[in-house]
Design brief:
This is TerD family protein. This protein is mostly beta strands. It has 1 helix and 14 strands.
Length: 192
């Protein structure tokens, strides 16, 4: 059973029967809004959204980053499966896999962001979501709909943080502007 998160809502990632999650997948999906052309005929746009995972230490310093130009964290615990340039297809268009047991002890927060590399704002994007899935069972644990259409072209989606001996996820949903995760660091720092 999935939990649909609202901005600021936090959910524990402990397994329902006890124990903690070991492997999770953050999926990002989206569709481009079809623009009406001449004579009412729809024209598909090409919008390149990018998912990134930023790894932070306890002091709020960026320890590592995983994005379309660096598909694996230095320690190998976080892996991006590749860049989708259009959002075409069903389900997750970009995927970031995280082996929570292998995340270095100095990393206390993983922040997931999305940005429009091609620069279009989110008013041109529909059906956008991020979700967290237990990789061992395939069960969707949490889902955050990125339905905030507007003039922004990026969003700080969610963070996964150490919570005692386990992990928790907080839906952030903060709008931002930027074409890469580096442009989003000031917006991200407000949520660490």
């Amino acid at each position: 059973m999935s939990i649909s998160l609202q901005k600021g809502q936090k959910v524990s990632l402990a397994k329902p029967g006890g124990g903690t999650l070991t492997r999770v997948r953050m999926g990002l999906g989206w569709d481009a809004v079809v623009k009406k052309g001449l004579f009412g005929k729809g024209k598909a746009q090409s919008i390149d959204l990018d998912a990134s995972c930023l790894l932070f230490d306890a002091s709020g310093n960026l320890a590592d980053s995983v994005w379309f130009r660096q598909l694996r964290s230095k320690d190998g615990s976080v892996h991006h499966t590749g860049d989708n340039l259009t959002g075409a297809g069903e389900g997750d268009d970009e995927v970031i896999n995280v082996d929570l047991q292998s995340v270095p002890a100095n990393v206390v927060q993983l922040v997931f962001t999305v940005n429009s590399f091609t620069g279009q704002d989110f008013s041109q994007i529909e059906n956008a979501f991020c979700r967290l899935v237990d990789e061992t069972t395939g069960q969707e644990l949490a889902r955050f709909d990125l339905s905030g259409a507007g003039q922004h072209n990026a969003q700080v989606m969610a963070k996964v943080a150490r919570d005692g001996s386990g992990w928790s996820m907080t839906a952030i949903g903060a709008t931002a502007t930027g074409r890469t995760f580096q442009d989003l660091l000031p917006a991200v720092s407000a949520h660490l």
